[in-house]
TrEMBL record, chain A:
NCBIfam families: PRK07570.1 (NF005746). This is Succinate dehydrogenase. The keyword Metal-binding applies. GO terms for molecular function: 2 iron, 2 sulfur cluster binding; electron transfer activity; metal ion binding.
From TrEMBL, chain B:
It comes from Streptomyces termitum. CDD domains: SQR_TypeB_2_TM (cd03498). Signal peptide: none annotated. Residues 1-12 have a biased composition (Low complexity). This is Succinate dehydrogenase. InterPro entries: Cytochrome_b-558 (IPR011138), SQR/QFR_C/D (IPR034804).
Length: 248, 242
């Protein structure tokens, strides 16, 4: 396959960027999107040009490092991570636009790489449990109702990629934050910090400059892990409850 | 997630951009809560308002009589028009709180996403944009509507206090009266459609199981309000109300 790529190039965080056009030849439909970019980069290196910078790590859809807005969709046209997106989702001769996540809380570092440390700071604000954990405990030591366990698992799937922020017209981090809050707040292990967690994480999220939620649902459509939109309402419920408790 | 490798590429990690605040009003969730509660108050009022408006189809005595009752509502406990003034003050506060939180949140949202994607997808911010534009249209309509049928300042006929039946007919005998009103009611419908469902989410009443029911109620409310409000100018235009 042959593709016409239009890629965002930006030297560093201070430089102006622009879309640059490249022809990429010799693409197999079995390649992942990142392997296709590797092919482009090998070519650029041979020509003595600066390769396109992009984030990646596990390349198996579990780490949350890869990003990229492909033809306007965070992680591209399939519901998966960019590293798990295959070139068979495109047609020979297609023009494909590749851009970084766009949000003022995620500044571009270089080319397609953005700084997502705002997410880390939201986690630091409350995305942990203070109970000493040690070795894995006996599974029946702390019973967890099945529905709660399932909800915790569903929300624990969030890999912190930031596609939700990238897809949101308001650059809101509500889906990510709700996944992290709900994951721990339904479990007995997370109960001691149930109120402070949601209050601190939401306050940190706001302080990082993410936008507010208008419930357009773009986040849940883009999320490669299927974190559902009602998770946001569940976090709002936790937040309102925590505020009431903090008062009385 | 932030990779160590992304940092060494350039600039050092950005320092946190703000100090977290625990205040209710300074939180986006707090402002959304104010927006949801004030929206629901206005929604409750609209339901009562549309029911009252439909009395126009039962003739001038009943309609004007109803308008009179609004002024003696709560008597003899309350003095003449006191109940009406309480309603007006609550509504004014709701409109004010709603508009201020909408404005502040919208500004914040625009600042949070300053760069557009070069490849633009259609419809991705449909609900957000219709809420903003629809809200502004409804806000302007409220001003015109009060000046038209409450104070009579911009009323097209000889406005007469206590004769709302005739006043309504005068308003809907002009092409612009009908146009402004019908456009605004369509905007109200769209606003309530996303607004009611959103308010439920904001107040923590949303869940996967309840989603269908909430959307159904939102659509039903929006449709009933829009159809009910529009029935009045259509009634005048077709001569059913005269
Ligand atoms: C002064 C005129 C109005 C303006 C400027 C306005 C503006 C807005 C905007 C921009 C939003 C979404 C903002 C966001 O979530 O960030 C919104 C939401 C909403 N509006 Fe309005 N609106 C107005 C009148 C009304 C009226 C008359 C009603 C009553 C039916 C109403 C009910 C709602 C509800 C229930 C919400 C959802 C709140 C939430 O998301 O939790 N609005 N409004
Ligand atoms: S909620 Fe989904 S899109 Fe957002 S960070 Fe988590 S996995 Fe990525
Ligand atoms: S590279 Fe790890 S999820 Fe894509």
């Amino acid at each position: 396959m042959k593709l016409n790529l239009r890629v965002w190039r930006q030297k560093n965080d201070a430089a102006e960027g622009a879309m640059a056009t490249y022809q990429v030849d010799g693409i197999s439909p079995d390649m992942s999107f990142l392997e296709m970019l590797d092919t482009l980069n090998e070519d650029l290196i041979l020509r003595g040009e600066d390769p396109v910078a992009f984030d990646h790590d596990c390349r198996e859809g579990i780490c949350g490092a890869c990003s990229l807005v492909i033809n306007g969709d965070a992680h591209g046209p399939e519901r998966t991570t960019t590293c798990q997106l295959h070139m068979r989702s495109f047609r020979d001769g297609d023009t494909v636009d590749v851009e970084p996540w766009r949000a003022s809380a995620f500044p571009v570092v270089k080319d397609l790489v953005v700084d997502r440390s705002a997410f880390d700071r939201i986690i630091q604000a409350g995305g942990y449990v203070t109970a000493p954990t040690g070795a894995a405990p006996e599974a029946h030591a702390t019973p967890v109702p099945k529905a709660d366990a399932e909800s915790a698992f569903e929300h624990a799937e969030c890999i912190g990629c930031g596609a939700c922020v990238a897809a949101c017209p308001n650059g809101s981090a509500m889906l990510f934050t709700s996944a992290k809050v709900n994951h721990l707040n339904v479990l007995p292990q997370g109960a001691p910090e149930r109120e402070t967690r949601v209050l601190d994480m939401v306050a940190r999220m706001d302080a990082e400059g993410f936008g507010g939620c208008t419930l357009t649902g773009e986040c849940a459509t883009a999320c490669p892990k299927g974190i559902p939109l009602p998770s946001i309402s569940a976090m709002n419920r936790e937040w309102l409850r925590a505020r009431r408790k903090a008062k009385g | 997630m932030a990779l160590a490798s992304s940092k060494e590429a350039a600039a050092p990690a950005r320092p946190p951009s703000g100090t977290p605040s625990r205040g209710f009003w300074s939180s986006t969730l707090g402002k959304k809560t104010v927006m949801a509660v004030s929206g629901l108050i206005m929604l409750g009022y609209l339901v009562a308002h549309v029911a009252g408006n439909l009395k126009v189809f039962f003739g001038p005595e009943e309609f004007d009589g109803y308008a009179h009752w609004l002024r003696v509502m709560g008597a003899p406990v309350l003095h003449h028009e006191w109940a009406l003034w309480i309603v007006r003050i609550v509504l004014l506060a709701a409109v004010g709180a709603h508009a201020v939180s909408a404005y502040q949140l919208s500004r914040r949202d625009v600042r949070a996403r300053p760069t557009r994607y070069a490849h633009r997808r259609k419809g991705s911010s449909y609900a957000t944009r219709t809420m903003r534009w629809g809200g502004i249209i409804v806000g302007l309509f409220i001003v015109w509507h009060v000046l038209d049928l409450t104070t009579g300042t911009v009323h097209p006929g000889g406005f007469e206090q206590g004769k709302p039946y005739q006043n309504v007919i005068d308003t809907f005998s002009t092409w612009y009266g009908n146009t402004i009103y019908i456009v605004a009611m369509l905007a109200v419908g769209l606003h309530v459609r996303h607004g009611f469902w959103s308010a439920a989410q904001t107040l923590g009443a949303g869940s996967a199981r309840r989603d269908r029911a909430l959307r159904l109620v939102a659509n039903g409310l929006a449709l009933a309000l829009t159809a009910g409000f529009i029935a009045v100018p259509v009634g005048v235009m077709t001569g059913v109300v005269n």
